[in-house]
Amino acid sequence: MEQTRAPLGLPFMKMHGLGNDFVVIDARVGDDPVTPALARALGDRHRGVGFDQLAVIKPAQQTDFTLEFWNSDGSKAGACGNATRCVSDWMMRQLGQDTVTLTTARGQLSARRRADGLVSVNMGDPILEAAAIPVAGDPMALPLAGDPVAVGMGNPHCIYFVDDAEAVDVAGLGPAIEHDTLFPERTNVEFASLTAPDHLRMRVWERGAGITLACGSGTCATAVAAHLRGLTGRHVIVDVDGGRLEIDWRADGVWMTGPTALVFTGVLTPEFLAAL
Q: 31: number of CA atoms within 13 Å, CB side?
């Protein structure tokens, strides 16, 4: 994909990590074309391209590149772990190397390709202070039915540990929890059950996107919460609707590993852009 905007439209890539899908725009050259209106139009699965998140590659001075994220409702997202892995994989191939550094709203992150081909990204340290998550209450003892845990990974997460994640009405419960007044910036919502020692099953409702097949930052937050609750160690396998992620909470941050996929490239037409 060319880095500059083509005369006859706007180039983009479609990627996914475990079915958590993204439109990616390379804006390292020229002006950043993304607006809330463009994000909403692109996110429309019937009239646009469709995505869980939009990722924009931008230049950086101290790292290989910068990433910014948008939700399909036109709001900004502070983090998107699976998109970070997917774009990092593409950037490693472009640069001819097996590691990259990048800048996000979380600060400087790093990613690498393992010998087995899976891509790992260090999502940074979890955010456990209420004001920084943000949440209005004790993150480990929220005044909500179900005794959830709040964890920040660049965006807020509310994690419920349940007997059977498969049985949870995610579509019914997710929106109300996302907009609960405890969360001034809304929240992602995860429902997880312990299926074996250091093995979780998780389903997710993402703020601004709804149910998704996977959520990288949510998987990291769930692994952190599980360890803090004494349910698992610091290294866990998490099965989500779209597949499996490996989470390792180390001294230098929370590492997430899984597969990536570049599905296709395309060009948004001038007519589509002019209608925004």
A: 3
Does 132 reside within a domain? no
pTM for the model: 0.91
Is there a single domain that holds both residue 238 and residue 264? no
Residues 218 and 268 both lie in one domain: no
Q: Which of 69-78, 187-196, 236-245 has the lowest mean pLDDT?
A: 69-78
Reply yes or no on whether the pLDDT at 67 is more than 50.
yes
Residue in 80, 86, 158, 220 annotated catalytic: 80
Tell me, yes or no, if 220 is annotated catalytic: no
Percent of the chain whose pLDDT exceeds 70? 97
86 is catalytic: no
**Residue 83 and residue 36: Cα distance in Å, rounded?**
19
CATH number assigned to the domain comprising residue 220:
3.10.310.10
CA-based end-to-end distance of the chain: 23
Which residue in the list 86, 158, 215, 220 is annotated as catalytic? 215
Give the domain range for residue 268. 10-123+260-274
